[in-house]
Amino acid sequence: MTPGLLKMWISFAGMAFMIIAIISIYLSRYKLKGFLKGIVATFAYLCMILAGIIIFLVVFSGPVSE
User: Fold this and answer.
1) Could you tell me the pLDDT band of residue 32, with boundaries at 50, 70 and 90?
2) In a domain, 22, yes or no
3) Domain tally for the chain?
């Protein structure tokens, strides 16, 4: 697998984490109550932070030399 293709798949993982975070935040705000609401919200924000770190690293690692 070439480095460019690997960066593409890693960025897709970052986008998937963002989608999971969006759905989880929606569920925790509007559909859930109590203790489960806090757990899902914490999971959602951890996914959002992880996605931000992944996208930051992919964007600022620069272009692939090929």
Assistant:
1) very high
2) yes
3) 1
Is-contact 4 61, C-beta < 8 A? Answer: no
In a domain, 37, yes or no: yes
The answer to whether residue 27 is domain-embedded is yes
21 contacts 47 by C-beta, under 8 angstroms: yes
The answer to whether residue 11 scores a pLDDT higher than 80 is: yes
CB neighbours (10 Å) of residue 26? 13
57-61 long-range contacts, CB within 8 A, separation 24+: 58/7, 58/10, 58/11, 58/14, 61/7
Phi-psi region of 32 (alpha: psi -120 to 50; beta: other; left: phi over 0): beta
